[in-house]
Structures are given as structure tokens and as C-alpha cells.
């Protein structure tokens, strides 16, 4: 019996666990702080087990890892290195869906020494984006071409019929990560020039982009794209860009939320209020006898009737709603209210849009290649974000356990022996790209 340990029972974990339980001779142990969540996903399966785990309990975590063949960490990214070190100690493979941090990369030699694979970035973005892009890039190279421009953008969005709030966004997983990503600086290559944007200006640097047959979205830069010139082997590319899609109106609204200080993860000095409106009032420094909505509009340089102000009012940032007692900074308070107001509802579908744009030069021609993935959640079933984030990781786990992947050290899925089987199996599940080529 092959043994898989899954750490975390969050909103995206179910497809991975159910996929692994569908494999013959796999035992899946799911460890979560809230064991009832894991029990619901295991659903009394004879080869499934739910156990309670506080990730700060080092001895229990180590014991669980030592008893597994492969560990899948769906914990917050800041715990992955801790888990990876225990996997190295006990010579157990690890799969995550998160970016490789500098600290994780430093474990490469140790992982190779003990003969294990630490496979990261095996989700959607990062994950399917790498795999689908590399399949095109490698195909171009085999045909004697060279990629001179590479642009890749992904959005996790509500489907159009579920897009019924003024933010044009709904959370199908915990919102804190999305909110934190709103503070990330970004960097990319554009026509040979390296462009760098500080985090506080992220939402000032978006474009409107039409994805044929899908819709028009805001596209803003995603983290640091520059390393992908080397990671993807794009030695001839003058443009290397990775972005994020959102519905129109998102970027300006989030820019103003940043300007108000609502994304700060530090306690607010001198604040003694009790409501969301009290905190907004404190952040902009206006007295209790002033109209908060109008004062906020003035502070942000907006008209009181502007769409941004209407969105902030709808969210409750001017309201008398009480702040949660156990959260002590604006980001945590915002996390609570966005999850309350913007959660993907029961029976609603989410939508994944991934769009690659690649310009290729051949000795006698030039082509514009697009590759588009549009995937929808299953009403009353798994969300698209859950399926596309965790099914690639689940397939990777199977490939490791079956000996299909034999490499060791730190890796991401950019080599054919990893991405080809995963993409092929995903296609059989309906997670499929539509590729088109236009001669320039």
C-alpha cells in the first residue's frame, strides 16, 4: 500500500484527495488543524484517514511525514521549507503548488544527496502555466524556430452568470493570499527593456486585454517575470511577461484600498474604534462629525458618486459593522469582510482563464501563437480553481509513486517527462487548451 500524506484541508484540497483515493492501493492521510474538514473530504473512504494537526507541533508533523511515501503540502507557503526539511531528513518526496522560495532552493543539494524529489509549482499558476508554455516552446525549438516574445496571463474569476457583485470577483479559496499578492512589486521585460514597478503602484500599471471568444479583462503584472527568460530557455525573447486577469474596475478599486491603508498587516497605532467605519475614519484622519463617505472620496481624489466609492461602501468599509475581536490589523479585518461579502456561493461556478501569446520567428516566416484555457467549476461540486490547482499535483504524486518520475532535487514542471503526462491526463478531464497560429 502506497502512503500519501496531505497537509491542509483548505478550499482547494478535495479534488487532489479524491483523485488519489480513486487510485488502487493508495492510502491517503489528511492532516488538518480542523479535522472535521478533512473528515468531510475523506467521506469515510476505506483507504482514507483524517487526523488533527497543529503545524507548529513539530513532533507530530515529523511522525506523519516519516510514515508517508510522498507528502503533499497545501499549507500556507511559509511552512513549505519546514516540511521540506523533514522530508529530506526522512527521505520522503514532497509536492507543493507554491513558488520555489530562495530558502527552498537552498535545499536542492540536500534533496539530491538523499535521493528525493521536492517538486514545487505544480498547481495552476504556478503549474499548468509552466507546463503548457513549455510544451509550446519546446515544440517551436524542435521546428527550428525561436521565441522572440512571450506573454502569459491567468485569471481566477467568477463565471459570467455568477459575476453579480460590484468588485467582479469572488473567492473560491481563502482571500488573504489574494490580498497579500496585491502588495507585490513586479518586474518584466518589454521589447528588451526591464520594467520594474513597486508594490504600491501595481494597480496603476494595467492594460485592458481582449481574450478572443472569452471577454475583455484588466491585465496587471504578476510578480517578477524576468527569471522566466532563463527558466523557460527564452534566450532570444525581448519580451517576457506574466500577468493576472481581473474583471474591469478591479485595479482602480484595489489601488484606492491600498492608498487607504487597508492592506497593512501591522496593528494600527492609536486606534480604539470598534467598527469598519471607525477604522476607515482613523486611517484617513477625519473626525466623527464629518461624513465618512464624502471625506474618503476627497482623501482619494474621487467624486462621491464614483464607482470606486460605491464599491467601498458596498463592501462595508464605511459601515457600523463590528470589527472581529481576534484580528488586530487592517489586512485581517479586510480578509474577514471580503470572505463574507465576496464568497463564491453554493451552486455558483468560477472560471479560469489562461492565455499565452507567443511570437515565433522561423528562418523564413514569423508566427503569432495563442493558447487559451477556459475552465469552469462544477455547480454544487468542485470549483475550477480547486481542480486546476490540485489535480496537476495529484497526477504528479501518482507519477512519483509509480516510478514515472525519477529525478531528484528541487524541480518545477518545465521538462517533458513531467509536463507531458500531466497535460495529457488533464486534457482527458476536460482541462484543455485551444491553440491557434497566425502568420505575421
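^ Assign residues to that structure.
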Amino acid at each position: 500500500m502506497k502512503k500519501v500524506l496531505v497537509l491542509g484541508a483548505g478550499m482547494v484540497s478535495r479534488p487532489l484527495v479524491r483523485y488519489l483515493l480513486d487510485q488502487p492501493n493508495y492510502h491517503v492521510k489528511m492532516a488538518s488543524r480542523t479535522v472535521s474538514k478533512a473528515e468531510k473530504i475523506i467521506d469515510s473512504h476505506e483507504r482514507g484517514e483524517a487526523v488533527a494537526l497543529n503545524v507548529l507541533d513539530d513532533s507530530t508533523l515529523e511522525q506523519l511525514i516519516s510514515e508517508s511515501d510522498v507528502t503533499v503540502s497545501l499549507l500556507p507557503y511559509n511552512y513549505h521549507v519546514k516540511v521540506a526539511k523533514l522530508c529530506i531528513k526522512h527521505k520522503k518526496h514532497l509536492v507543493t503548488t507554491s513558488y520555489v522560495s530562495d530558502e527552498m532552493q537552498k535545499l536542492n543539494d540536500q534533496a539530491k544527496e538523499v535521493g528525493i524529489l521536492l517538486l514545487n509549482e505544480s498547481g495552476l499558476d504556478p503549474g499548468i502555466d509552466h507546463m503548457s508554455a513549455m510544451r509550446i516552446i519546446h515544440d517551436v525549438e524542435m521546428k527550428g524556430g525561436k521565441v522572440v516574445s512571450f506573454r502569459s496571463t491567468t485569471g481566477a474569476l467568477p463565471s459570467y452568470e455568477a459575476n453579480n457583485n460590484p468588485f467582479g470577483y469572488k473567492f473560491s479559496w481563502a482571500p488573504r493570499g489574494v490580498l497579500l499578492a496585491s502588495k507585490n512589486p513586479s518586474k518584466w521585460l518589454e521589447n528588451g527593456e526591464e520594467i520594474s514597478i513597486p508594490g504600491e503602484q501595481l494597480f496603476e500599471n494595467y492594460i485592458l486585454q481582449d481574450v478572443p471568444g472569452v471577454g475583455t479583462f484588466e491585465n496587471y503584472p504578476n510578480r517578477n517575470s524576468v527569471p522566466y527568460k532563463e527558466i523557460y530557455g527564452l534566450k532570444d525573447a525581448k519580451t517576457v511577461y506574466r500577468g493576472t486577469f481581473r474583471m474591469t474596475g478591479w485595479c482602480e478599486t484595489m489601488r484606492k484600498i491600498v492608498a487607504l491603508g487597508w492592506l497593512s498587516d501591522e496593528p494600527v497605532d492609536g486606534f480604539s474604534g470598534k467598527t469598519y467605519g471607525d477604522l476607515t475614519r482613523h486611517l484617513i484622519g477625519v473626525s466623527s462629525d464629518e461624513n465618512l463617505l464624502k471625506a474618503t472620496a476627497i482623501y482619494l481624489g474621487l467624486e462621491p458618486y464614483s464607482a470606486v466609492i460605491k464599491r467601498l461602501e458596498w463592501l462595508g468599509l464605511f459601515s457600523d459593522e463590528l470589527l472581529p475581536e481576534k484580528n488586530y490589523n487592517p489586512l485581517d479585518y479586510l480578509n474577514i469582510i471580503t470572505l463574507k461579502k465576496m464568497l463564491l456561493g453554493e451552486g455558483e461556478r468560477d472560471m479560469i482563464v489562461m492565455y499565452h501569446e507567443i511570437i515565433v520567428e522561423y528562418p523564413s516566416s514569423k508566427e503569432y501563437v495563442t493558447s487559451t484555457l477556459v475552465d469552469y467549476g462544477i455547480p454544487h461540486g468542485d470549483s475550477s480553481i480547486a481542480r486546476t490547482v490540485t489535480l496537476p499535483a495529484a497526477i504528479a504524486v501518482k507519477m512519483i509513486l509509480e516510478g514515472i518520475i525519477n529525478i531528484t532535487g528541487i524541480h518545477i514542471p518545465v521538462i517533458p517527462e513531467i509536463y507531458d503526462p500531466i497535460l495529457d491526463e488533464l486534457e482527458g478531464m476536460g482541462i484543455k487548451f485551444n491553440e491557434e497560429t497566425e502568420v505575421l
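The chain has three domains: 2-119, 128-250+345-382+432-439, 253-341.
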